[in-house]
């Protein structure tokens, strides 16, 4: 079994997944909008280009997501996508990239449990924790 976070967006899924790919690497294997699918007649015309399903696969991770219908979108709360790194420099690079244009909740720094740890919300509202184990 693998646990895969599924992130919801309010019309910004395409941009978010392009950003996540630029930061985390990997390959976007799915980026499906309603336009041209059997779902199109059931979607408001202004939302047919919103993403119904996206998938980013990389070494040791997978992320999935989509744009929620406008009346159903809620700002993410009550969780964080947690990234674990062995290399503190790589963890700091990823944290800084995710935090840019977003909000830092806890700056990236050494803690009593980690060589580096930080919490942020990215520019799309997704909450992240970046943790670098003590060697």
From TrEMBL:
It comes from the Bacteria. InterPro entries: Glyas_Bleomycin-R_OHBP_Dase (IPR029068), PhnB-like (IPR028973). Pfam families: 3-dmu-9_3-mt. Gene3D superfamilies: 2,3-Dihydroxybiphenyl 1,2-Dioxygenase, domain 1. Residues 2-130 form the PhnB-like domain. This is VOC family protein. It comes from Sphingosinicella xenopeptidilytica. The lineage of its organism: Bacteria, Pseudomonadati, Pseudomonadota, Alphaproteobacteria, Sphingomonadales.
